[in-house]
Amino acid sequence: PAMQRMEANVLVLGADRVGKSALTVRFLTRRFIGEYGDTKSIYSHSLAVEGREILFHIWDFSYSQDGADESSAEEKRVQWADGFILVYSICDRASFNILHPKVQFIKAAKEATSQEKVPIVIVGNKRDLHHQRVVSSEEGRLLALSVDCGFYEVSAAEAYHGSLMVFQGLAERFCEAKLAP
Ligand code: GDP
Ligand code: MG
C-alpha cells in the first residue's frame, strides 16, 4: 500500500539558551554546532513513523529575535502550529517553571478551535551537564504526566538519538490525535 503522508507545523518553544536551536539543528542535520544565530526560517524535514511519512515544518522560535513580544503574536504562533516541543534546561529552574503555564496557554488556545488533543512533547535538555542539574528527572516526568504530554530528557550536545526520539514521540502523538474518535 502507498505510504500515508501527513504534514504538521511544529513550534519549538522555551526560555532563551535552553537548546531549542541545538535540538532542532540536531534533528535536521544530525550535527551539533555549538552556537546558533537567531533564525526566522521555518525548516522542513520528514520522518517515517508507524508506516506513515510525516513532513514537519519546524519553527525554532526565539523571543530574543523580536525583543518584547505581544501576547497576540504568541497567540498567532500557537494557532499556526499543529504540535509543540517545549524545551527547558535541567540546569535552569526558571526555564522549567515557565512550562506549566505555557502548556495551559497552548491547550486553552488550541482546544477552543479543535476537538483533537494537541500533540505536545516536553524536553529536558542538557542532560550531559549532570553536575549542574537543578531539575530532577522525576519533576520533569511528573509535569509531563500532569498535563498529559510526552517527556524526554536529552542532550542535544552529546547525541543525535535524543532529538530523534523527541520528533518521533511528537509524530506518534500526531498519529494518535488523528486516529482518536
Ligand atoms: P536556544 O536559545 O534555546 O536556541 O539555545 P541554543 O540552542 O542556542 O543553545 C544555547 C547554548 O547551550 C549554546 O551554547 C549551546 O551550545 C548550549 N547547549 C545546547 N544544548 C546543549 C546540551 O545538550 N548540552 C550542553 N552542555 N550545552 C548545550
Ligand atoms: Mg535559538
Structure description:
- The structure is a single chain.
- This protein is of the alpha/beta class.
- Helix content is 37%, strand content 25%.
- It is built from six helices and six strands, in the order βαββαβααβαβα.
- It has helices at residues 20-29, 71-80, 93-97, 99-111, 137-146, 161-179; strands at 4-14, 42-49, 52-60, 83-89, 120-125, 150-153.
- A six-stranded mixed sheet has the order 2-3-1-4-5-6, with helices on both faces.
- A hairpin with a 2-residue loop joins strand 2 and strand 3 (52-60).
- It is globular.
- Bound molecules: guanosine-5'-diphosphate (GDP) and magnesium ion.
- Guanosine-5'-diphosphate (GDP) is lined by residues 14, 16-22, 34-36, 62, 125-126, 128-129, 155-157.
- Guanosine-5'-diphosphate binds at residues 14, 16-22, 34-36, 62, 125-126, 128-129, 155-157.
- Keywords: GTP-binding, Hydrolase, Nucleotide-binding.
- It comes from Alligator sinensis (Chinese alligator).
- Its EC number is 3.6.5.2.
Strand neighbour order, sheet with most strands = 2-3-1-4-5-6
Ligand names: guanosine-5'-diphosphate, magnesium ion
E-strand count = 6
By oligomeric state, this entry counts as: single chain
Residue fraction in strands: 15-25%
